[in-house]
Specification:
Blueprint (H helix, E strand, L loop, with lengths): L29 H6 L11 H14 L9 E5 L2 E4 L2 E5 L12 H14 L7 H5 L2 H14 L3 E5 L2 H12 L5 E5 L4 H10 L2 E5 L4 H9 L6 E6 L11 H10 L3 E5 L14 H4 L9 E5 L9 E5 L1 H10 L1 H4 L6 H16 L1 H20 L11 E7 L1 H13 L2 E2 L2 E2 L9 E6 L6 H18 L10
Parallel strand pairs: 3-12, 5-6, 5-7, 7-8, 8-9
Antiparallel strand pairs: 1-2, 2-3, 4-10, 9-10, 11-14, 13-14
The structure holds pyridoxal-5'-phosphate (PLP).
The site of pyridoxal-5'-phosphate has 14 residues, from helix 6.
């Protein structure tokens, strides 16, 4: 039997030869030399040790994260680690994640099409249900084209990787979501950040690199602050600088604008001003996945070249069917947005009256600053004791020293839930004596 090419002369032959790599049995192999103690291992940093030290460092600043296990959900109430709590920190803004029409659509589609797509979109996984969802979203947003991706995180990676290279620049708001920052890093382009919501700052950054192709990328609604980006000003800046404005509307879609078309529609900007925007399906639409919508040529380019789109399994068609049902509800049931906004106003009015220091947000994201991590954890624990689930958000998700409770409201909350939450917050403030939560005069 011929020897494996590249094997040393004493390599085993015959039936067992296939089990042996060319070197593994040999006394001259790197493995044998290491075992004999004749070779010193290189002095590399130990990654397990590094991870252990990093965890200890996080512990020292109350930065350790832990997952909570939800065992049952019933509307906005959920059983967390064995205890029923009111969820006031999720993103199910319209209360669609448990809607019978949405879960019914998923069940029906799974019954006929199974649970997985079985392939990537460009090979064998693209299903009529995916295409129907893309058409529905393009129609809803009054945009020429849409492309369904696995998640909002992947979609942000896809956009910047497909559009930008080494010589280019991505100009971003300092408080953009982590996926946008990582997307620019993956694209290998230059990343320039401007002060939060400062369109002049964006202009300065663009002016400093006049020869580079440029994307200006911003969250539509900032995920940890709840405020809305100055989209009209950014559109002017992008236009005069020949840059492309990309809006990640993860938290605006379904919530803001006419028919819930999001922050871009609310700012009355068309596809010329915002050639691409991100719609996530896992927040107000209650499901999972994301859609990039906008200019037809750009969307076609992404569909053919964006690696996070090409080299991954398509979403289950049943998940697309569920999202289609959710989009139809979000488009038509205006009462959900009206109800949500009424709850936001109720919360703000009562919280201000109770002397709580709210951030300037008119969206369902209503953060309450706590200062340091220990304080945020203490607030979160006090609220949990009162029956509310509000996670403490700490760095690096928010800037150092700006830990907060990210309170979020949903159309599925009751007035009484909001009132009880404000009472619990005020009691926590009184008990904890947290100066950071006392209102600063306007
Ligand atoms: C602003 C923003 N963009 C993108 C994402 C990522 O979306 P997804 O959860 O669909 O991956 C999030 C998620 O938290 C987000 O808040």
């Amino acid at each position: 039997m011929p020897r494996t090419p590249g094997a040393c002369s004493s390599a085993p032959r015959g039936a067992w030869a296939w089990r042996s790599t060319a070197w593994s049995h040999c006394r001259r192999s790197p493995w044998a030399r290491w075992r004999s103690g004749r070779v010193m291992a290189p002095d590399r940093p130990d990654l397990r040790e590094r991870a252990r030290q990093a965890r200890e460092a996080r512990d020292a600043v109350h930065g350790r994260r832990r997952r909570r296990v939800v065992t049952r959900r019933d509307g906005m109430r959920c059983e967390v680690d064995g205890r029923w709590l009111l969820n006031v920190c999720g993103n199910d803004y319209l209360g669609l994640s448990q809607h019978f029409a949405v879960s019914g659509a998923l069940q029906d589609a799974a019954a006929t099409d199974g649970v997985g797509s079985g392939g990537s979109h460009l090979v064998s996984g693209h299903h009529a249900r995916h295409a129907a969802l893309e058409r529905e979203i393009a129609d809803w947003l009054q945009l020429p084209a849409a492309l369904l991706l696995g998640s909002g995180f992947a979609a942000n990676l896809a956009v910047l990787q497909a559009l930008l290279g080494d010589e280019d620049v991505c100009v971003q708001d300092r408080l953009n979501h982590a996926s946008l920052i990582d997307a620019a890093r993956l694209a290998g382009c230059r990343l320039r950040r401007y002060p939060h919501a400062d369109a002049q700052g964006a202009l300065r950054q663009l002016r400093s690199l006049p020869g580079s192709a440029a994307v200006v990328a911003t969250d539509g609604v900032f995920s940890m602050d709840g405020d809305v980006a100055p989209l009209r000003e950014l559109a002017v800046v992008a236009r005069v600088q020949h840059a492309l404005l990309y809006v990640d509307d993860a938290h605006g879609i379904g919530v803001l604008g006419p028919d819930g078309r999001g922050s871009v529609a609310e700012a009355r900007l068309d596809v010329g001003a915002v050639p691409l925007q991100l719609v996530t399906l896992g927040k107000a639409l209650g499901g999972y996945g994301a859609v990039l919508a906008g200019d037809a040529d750009l969307v076609a380019h992404l569909a053919e070249t964006a690696r996070p789109y090409l080299y991954t399994t398509a979403l289950p068609p049943a998940q697309a069917a569920a999202s289609l049902a959710a989009v139809r509800l979000a488009r038509l049931e205006h009462w959900r947005r009206e109800r949500l906004m009424a709850l936001v106003q109720r919360f703000r009015t009562r919280a201000r009256a109770a002397g709580l220091d709210l951030m300037p947000s008119e969206t369902p994201i209503q953060p309450l600053r706590c200062g340091d991590n220990a304080n945020a954890l203490a607030w979160s624990a006090a609220l949990e004791a009162a029956g509310f689930w509000v996670a403490a958000i700490r760095p690096p998700t928010v800037p150092e020293g700006q830990a907060r409770l990210r309170i979020t409201l949903s159309a599925a909350h009751a007035d009484a839930d909001v009132d009880a939450l404000v009472d619990a917050l005020a009691r926590a403030r009184d008990t904890l004596g947290a100066e950071s939560a006392v209102a600063t005069p306007a």
